[in-house]
Amino acid sequence: MKRNHISKYLFRFAACALLSVMAGCTNLDEELYDRITSENFLQTREDVTRDFLRAFEHSYWSIQGGSTFMLQENSSDEMMTINRQGDWFDGGQFQRVHYHTWTPQDGFTSDPWNALYGGVTLATNSLEDLEGITDPSKFEMTREELDGMIAELKVLRAWLNIRLLDFYRNIVIVTKVKGQTEGGPQVSPQEAFAFIEQELKDALPKLSTNTTLGNNAVGRWTKGGAASLLVRLYLNSKVYTGTDRFADCAKMAQGIIDGEYGDYALETRWDAPFDYTNPASKETIFGFPGSFAQTHWQYDGGMYFWMLPNLAPSYFGFTDFGNANPKYAMQPGRDVDSVEYNFTLGKPFIKFQKYKDDVRLKKYKNLGNSKREGMFLYGYLPYTNSAGKADTVRGFKGPYPLFLRDQVGKFLDAKPGTKIADKVSNMNNGDNNSGLYPVKYPYYPSDDQNKISSAYAEVRFAEIYYSLAECKYRAGDKAGAAVLLNTVRKRNYPAGSPSLYKADGSQLNDQEMLDEWMREFLAEGRRRTDLIRWGMFNTGTWWDKKPDADNHTEIFPIGQNVLNSSPQLKQNPGY
């Protein structure tokens, strides 16, 4: 399909769309777009392209905007936003997320609904525009090109709807926005699931493959992308609908691996899927393009740039964005006396340390020439300050050097290994030494031409291997699961490493499967979903978190602000 012309607009369009997002594109009451029609707006091929792309930029923002990333990670056993001597207490909202004690009055329960429906509304509006074109030749387009764009918008909408289903379960299916003055009724999870599944199946034949698009595939929903969303849908079907669809998941995942939906391949380096070369990587099934000069939402304050200690940019040599802010860190694996906790969930850094030759365990370091090593920030972080003197990263609560620990407490200026008197370790008692930080996407120095140039890899080929491995494990084929997992895992260890699973899969059990999902997809915004699928989100114990009284918090309440503006909606059970 000759639709590569769209790709050249992805970066160009992102800059102006960024301003639109900041101006409030999540406002569902805005009526501007229902006055845009193919008759009075779409006059040229470029108009059609811009209309097609509008929903993509908002959707990229929605990965971290609207509290979506925060709720997926902070409600799980992976990440935390602790009270750091008064910083990040924020009325206790992050503690309520951690303890699963949120209420409909919390603004973050409305945020994902508004953010995701903002994308659904934009995609649907553009769909109505493009579906209203009766003569594509007027825009120097073929029917095949136009149908492909329509199919991509439907896949984008399906991706947004999957996330709405995951967050709220009882959602509204939007298929028309022009001329509408109020939202429609909620449908059952089963009906929503069926709609999403059918929309993806209908779109598949009309989509391009990554082979056809080549290096222009990033930012485009292809056959592989649509098939991958079906894998996600089927993998979680038992949670969403009560019906097991693991067999369908396995069939679809095997088809992707076998090349039925495009030409995909795993990278040989663990960091390559996140590096500046990832737009052209065959491991990137779907990614949102980013660049330093235009859009780079994963490097925004809502996500990875606030997953760093205050002066970490000085350690990186990347000073274009100013100082970071430690909103997110990994939950600790050890108490203030450095004794490992005895619960089995969480403890992400310790889960990595289980396999001691894991190359990701190295401290993150820029090596020059757009290369890095290691995935974590820990210990002291030295750098050369503006006076040309050796210095080390410090916090904003004291002049002492920070020593980053896999612990939470009031360590202040205590040297490593020093016992402190305050033994309290919880969400309300931390400092800037508390917690370690993962660095998945690189922060190359400010003079590096490839700084902040990675695409956000929303769907990686590795996910398909892990999904199929889980299906095989659940079907009793541990050996088959081990082979699939090792196919990805081997890049994390030296050649011949004893850390690879035994061929018979005998090391695999439910806990190890869940741990391995954590290791591969740490801080990629999916942990809550994985815990729910394995039945541990409400029943599990992790750092400063006891099991819930019941399972109603598997889904979020519809925020009171949403209910106030949409009286036809009914609150979710338990709220």
UniProtKB/TrEMBL annotation:
Key words of the record: Cell outer membrane, Membrane, Signal
Lineage: Bacteria, Pseudomonadati, Bacteroidota, Cytophagia, Cytophagales
GO cellular component, one term: cell outer membrane
Compartment(s) where it occurs, according to its Swiss-Prot or TrEMBL record: Cell outer membrane
Similarity annotation: Belongs to the SusD family.
Domain RagB/SusD: 419-575
InterPro entries hit by this protein: SusD_RagB_dom, TPR-like_helical_dom_sf
Protein name: RagB/SusD family nutrient uptake outer membrane protein
Originating organism: Dyadobacter sediminis
Main location: membrane
PROSITE patterns (UniProt xref): PROKAR_LIPOPROTEIN
Signal peptide: 1-23
